[in-house]
UniProtKB/TrEMBL annotation:
A single GO molecular function term of this UniProt record: unfolded protein binding
Annotated TM spans: none
Gene (UniProt): Pfdn2
Region (Disordered) location: 1-33
Quaternary state and interactors: Heterohexamer of two PFD-alpha type and four PFD-beta type subunits. Component of the PAQosome complex which is responsible for the biogenesis of several protein complexes and which consists of R2TP complex members RUVBL1, RUVBL2, RPAP3 and PIH1D1, URI complex members PFDN2, PFDN6, PDRG1, UXT and URI1 as well as ASDURF, POLR2E and DNAAF10/WDR92. Interacts with URI1; the interaction is phosphorylation-dependent and occurs in a growth-dependent manner.
Protein name: Prefoldin subunit 2
Length: 150
């Protein structure tokens, strides 16, 4: 028996606006978030990923600075070394470069701390948005249903 023009289980068009239809034509209990909600959720996730990526990048840079600083502390302060400044390699002494590197490391550390705070705030914002709009990711269990026994 053909269902003819009846909407399938994953199509919108009949029943309650914003709800999907069950195979029997009535509204199913699962709401389909409007496209704006999905777009905003994805945008928040992308912002969170961007913050995490930048923090990880700066962590690597911080580790590089620490490695160079530890290496330079063990050599003669009058020894010449080379440093990249604005894309140009300049010759300096260790005693000139070391304070600048330590200052850079301190600044990077502060930026990482700020990024981590922003990352936590973005995570809270994302979770609040998920709860407000009852968004579940694919493969995620419904927290309101008891766990399946198996």
């Amino acid at each position: 028996a053909s269902q003819g023009s009846r909407a399938g289980p994953w199509q919108l068009g009949r029943g309650v606006p914003g709800r999907s239809l069950s195979p029997w034509g009535g509204p199913s209990p699962v709401t389909v978030p409007p496209p704006q909600v999905v777009a905003r959720f994805n945008r928040l996730r992308q912002e969170q990923r961007g913050l995490a990526s930048k923090a990880a990048e700066l962590e690597l840079e911080l580790n590089e600075h620490s490695l160079v600083i530890e290496t330079l502390r063990e050599v003669d302060p009058g020894r010449k070394c080379f440093r990249m400044v604005g894309g140009i390699l300049v010759e300096r002494t260790v005693k000139e470069v070391l304070p600048a590197l330590e200052n850079n490391r301190e600044q990077i550390s502060k930026i990482i701390e700020t990024l981590n705070q922003q990352l936590q705030a973005k995570g809270r914002e994302l979770n609040e948005f998920r709860e407000k709009h009852n968004i579940r990711l694919v493969g995620e269990d419904d927290p309101k249903q008891p766990p399946k026994e198996g």
